[in-house]
């Protein structure tokens, strides 16, 4: 292959170096600093566009590959590349960061240069997570992300920020160290840290289950899944608006991405036999957390819980694959679950980001997130009201918005697996409608609640631009999801085929094949390989 | 044993340090109090030349071990790297100390002389090729440290710490000596190579060997401060003057590492299965007690003391793996730890000022506002100690864990990472104090150029080594 321009390196390091430059520029000339920050964010977004424009959609191979020695002594490489699963997430990252910078423009008065710099550095690190193809490089970015987020919540957060940020850090740190042990273990099996090599690894069932559980802890904390979700509401409530947006829109996606990049392809047999666990946790997240969201008085907390419920959908879509194969004997519908999960992740990135920005708009004016402090906002802020209603509808999965596409695909896929999965999953349509619309009713509609609300000013140009762009993205994917789905399709098909091939060493695989095939047998994946088109 | 002039060349770094110490000792007599900075300049120059000497000797002799003085002294790639590391750390220690010592009327030549002689002891330990030379280096180091801990004559806590250190250190040395005598009785040799040969012949048959081994390991664990021989560490760190604690927590750990490798790996490889089992217990206890007890400390010097103990647990993890990769990982960890400890204490020394000793966690409050650059450097050091990428502490932990998993002890790796989560909490608390709390103090931070340069080099080295660890790691790998 011809040496090509290192786009991924550019998209990773441009914002990091730009962020350092912003910090170095300091707060003496705050206006100039903000302009530089915005310039860097826009430049990073533009630099990430070629990843999409030059992307070859017909193949599941890694593209824009860059490979160089990093630590030769332990075979760690600087190995980057994207496929249809990671590329959309990188674009989501660079896209959303622009709005985070813009949203902090007037609001952040304490050390704006540090604030913007931290977000830019984090942007680069997150792109690094999505594009790393070396396990240690992945872990490197994965953990490095914690430092700026820890400082962002701790320095610019709300009253209880110290508790929230330490909880956030320790939960995530706790999750990831087990993953590190698993990665090192696999290094000794594969003799390399490259993730594609891990994918080809033969592993015994015990090893697979342990590795699967190690990954599960790491990714479940990040997603977050029930019951390790409790850091999220705290972190969201205390984080500044930009921090909440990044957390909800991108950081949670990293957990979902981890399932697709690590758990499913590396430990397919363990995933197949433990899929009931993930499905159960996902359904609990969808139903139980949906009810929890219903009773929140704090808008940010409500959206945080809604994020957990929506991410439950994502993990459901990913892990329903095995049930589909078991029930129908073919993998035809399986890809739809994963595609649905992916679309849901992208769409949730826009919608939850936008909802947090909406709460930020109100919070900047009234310094309260309590639903009870508002009422009748639409009378004084008609434009704002319109946007809130739109994003609330999207959050509830209204057809025509991106929220609908992902949820519909996941529910459709779960139907093939098990009627009850689909039924429980579909309750989210009711619950999400209930908790978001009820919040909208109490905050936006009705008579003007109090004098403060009566004095509110509508969106300024900057806020309108922010919400408008996110609304456009939400609508675009809702009305015409085909480009997005097409980009992901080959990679997801490849993944689905890959996970149906048993990774057990030969003798064990033979034993599985010898067993009489019966529907609902968890270990019976090996024999469906031939029909795997 | 015949004296050869070429032996002196092999000893060049030690000779440079010795000469520097003697020059300071003499020049100091003629210096009036206000011109004591000359001592500092001489020391800087001497250390610079010594670093160059390490390089010259290393390049001249190449990767093969070189012996001097009838095999009593060895120079090999490991000694070159460790010597370079302790010389750099000592240089940093001097740079950090100036204002602190000057303000407390401790800016006298003896400080430099004692540190340089301690350094000489470390260099001798690193290159010792027999029990006798090892013991000589160890005692030279220990005696200088006892005096340094009590350097502030008027401080009762300093005197108490020095007494404690002296009594426990003497006990540790006694144990070591007793163990050495056992091994000598069993093998009839004091050089590491002859001992290794004799052990290979006798094997486990000779119970004296195992008996001696246990005492030698106790001696090593005392010097490292591994649990259950750790009790002196927090008290001594707390009682010693800041710059002394800085030196004490960094360079001697490298010496202890060298001692462990020389004695256990070079001298007693035949007993590897025995000593690695003992090290498993010591490392698990150190990880557990170091990390858990550190949480309860409000005095930051004590907290760093317990943090030392937990890092020692990690160094032992690498050693007990018993593979070249494991030794290299432990060596990487020891060097990196020396830099981290120097950085953490260095920042404390810099924010201490006239009549005020920065030692409570609260003293760090609001450092982010008082001095953003210093705060950033301290943050880098803390995250590095916690083992968060992109800082070098992560790489050190990664290598050690890799070595442990390589020999199949996955459970040990899991124990280690679980306690490193516990450890992350108290490092985060320091960062929290720095950035999330409002300042309580308004005193000026050390603005001297030397200290500024030292802290910048020290802090940024965390980041640079973390992102580009390949060179240092290659040097460590070359040593085994």
From TrEMBL, chain A:
<keyword id="KW-0812">Transmembrane</keyword>
<dbReference type="InterPro" id="IPR000260">
    <property type="entry name" value="NADH4_N"/>
</dbReference>
<feature type="domain" description="NADH:quinone oxidoreductase/Mrp antiporter transmembrane">
    <location>
        <begin position="132"/>
        <end position="428"/>
    </location>
</feature>
<feature type="transmembrane region" description="Helical">
    <location>
        <begin position="345"/>
        <end position="363"/>
    </location>
</feature>
<keyword id="KW-1278">Translocase</keyword>
<feature type="transmembrane region" description="Helical">
    <location>
        <begin position="36"/>
        <end position="55"/>
    </location>
</feature>
<feature type="transmembrane region" description="Helical">
    <location>
        <begin position="242"/>
        <end position="264"/>
    </location>
</feature>
<feature type="transmembrane region" description="Helical">
    <location>
        <begin position="302"/>
        <end position="325"/>
    </location>
</feature>
<feature type="domain" description="NADH:ubiquinone oxidoreductase chain 4 N-terminal">
    <location>
        <begin position="73"/>
        <end position="123"/>
    </location>
</feature>
<comment type="similarity">
    <text>Belongs to the complex I subunit 4 family.</text>
</comment>
<dbReference type="Pfam" id="PF01059">
    <property type="entry name" value="Oxidored_q5_N"/>
</dbReference>
<feature type="transmembrane region" description="Helical">
    <location>
        <begin position="168"/>
        <end position="188"/>
    </location>
</feature>
<keyword id="KW-1133">Transmembrane helix</keyword>
<dbReference type="InterPro" id="IPR001750">
    <property type="entry name" value="ND/Mrp_TM"/>
</dbReference>
<dbReference type="InterPro" id="IPR003918">
    <property type="entry name" value="NADH_UbQ_OxRdtase"/>
</dbReference>
<feature type="transmembrane region" description="Helical">
    <location>
        <begin position="6"/>
        <end position="24"/>
    </location>
</feature>
<feature type="transmembrane region" description="Helical">
    <location>
        <begin position="85"/>
        <end position="107"/>
    </location>
</feature>
<feature type="transmembrane region" description="Helical">
    <location>
        <begin position="276"/>
        <end position="295"/>
    </location>
</feature>
<feature type="transmembrane region" description="Helical">
    <location>
        <begin position="419"/>
        <end position="440"/>
    </location>
</feature>
<keyword id="KW-0472">Membrane</keyword>
<dbReference type="Pfam" id="PF00361">
    <property type="entry name" value="Proton_antipo_M"/>
</dbReference>
<feature type="transmembrane region" description="Helical">
    <location>
        <begin position="139"/>
        <end position="156"/>
    </location>
</feature>
TrEMBL record, chain B:
<feature type="domain" description="NADH:quinone oxidoreductase/Mrp antiporter transmembrane">
    <location>
        <begin position="128"/>
        <end position="420"/>
    </location>
</feature>
<keyword id="KW-1003">Cell membrane</keyword>
<protein>
    <recommendedName>
        <fullName>NADH-quinone oxidoreductase subunit N</fullName>
        <ecNumber>7.1.1.-</ecNumber>
    </recommendedName>
</protein>
<keyword id="KW-0830">Ubiquinone</keyword>
<feature type="transmembrane region" description="Helical">
    <location>
        <begin position="244"/>
        <end position="265"/>
    </location>
</feature>
<dbReference type="Pfam" id="PF00361">
    <property type="entry name" value="Proton_antipo_M"/>
</dbReference>
<keyword id="KW-0874">Quinone</keyword>
<feature type="transmembrane region" description="Helical">
    <location>
        <begin position="163"/>
        <end position="196"/>
    </location>
</feature>
<feature type="transmembrane region" description="Helical">
    <location>
        <begin position="81"/>
        <end position="100"/>
    </location>
</feature>
<keyword id="KW-1278">Translocase</keyword>
<feature type="transmembrane region" description="Helical">
    <location>
        <begin position="327"/>
        <end position="351"/>
    </location>
</feature>
<feature type="transmembrane region" description="Helical">
    <location>
        <begin position="208"/>
        <end position="232"/>
    </location>
</feature>
<keyword id="KW-1133">Transmembrane helix</keyword>
<comment type="subunit">
    <text>NDH-1 is composed of 14 different subunits. Subunits NuoA, H, J, K, L, M, N constitute the membrane sector of the complex.</text>
</comment>
<keyword id="KW-0813">Transport</keyword>
<comment type="function">
    <text>NDH-1 shuttles electrons from NADH, via FMN and iron-sulfur (Fe-S) centers, to quinones in the respiratory chain. The immediate electron acceptor for the enzyme in this species is believed to be ubiquinone. Couples the redox reaction to proton translocation (for every two electrons transferred, four hydrogen ions are translocated across the cytoplasmic membrane), and thus conserves the redox energy in a proton gradient.</text>
</comment>
<comment type="similarity">
    <text>Belongs to the complex I subunit 2 family.</text>
</comment>
<keyword id="KW-0812">Transmembrane</keyword>
<feature type="transmembrane region" description="Helical">
    <location>
        <begin position="277"/>
        <end position="296"/>
    </location>
</feature>
<feature type="transmembrane region" description="Helical">
    <location>
        <begin position="107"/>
        <end position="126"/>
    </location>
</feature>
<dbReference type="InterPro" id="IPR010096">
    <property type="entry name" value="NADH-Q_OxRdtase_suN/2"/>
</dbReference>
<feature type="transmembrane region" description="Helical">
    <location>
        <begin position="372"/>
        <end position="396"/>
    </location>
</feature>
